[in-house]
Amino acid sequence: MAAIHFGRGLQSVNILRNREEDNQRGVNFYPTGWTEKQMFSYARKNLDQAKTGIALISKKSFRFMVDIPLALAEATLQASSRGHPSSPAARYYRSLDKARSFNAKGAKYANYEEIS
Fold first, then answer.
1. Which end of the chain, N or C, is less packed with Cβ atoms under 10 Å?
2. How many C-beta atoms lie closer than 10 Å to residue 28's C-beta?
3. 3-state secondary structure 42-54
4. Residues 95, 35: contact at Cβ < 8 Å?
5. Per-residue pLDDT tens for 66-105?
6. pTM of the model
């Protein structure tokens, strides 16, 4: 179930992040009748449920592949709720230094902190 929640969470964050641009193009990806508050709630709920499921996965597995997208999605959701939908990813990518410091197995990375 973590994968389903992760996918739904990421997709809803993208919908929220691109809302203004989609509106300008005459496109609406919100479910019929949903408010912005409901979209934020849905995104947060799914990311939280994904995070809970991901926490149960062994760190020796593929888990490292989901940590970065999850951190980016959460930062984007937080920034979108404050009216700044596009800024977090750029800050995170600078901070990640393109996911530097992978070990020989490619299973670990170091220090990814948001740059304010």
1. C
2. 12
3. HHHHHHHHHHHHH
4. no
5. 777 888 888 888 888 877 666 555 555 544 544 444 433 3
6. 0.65
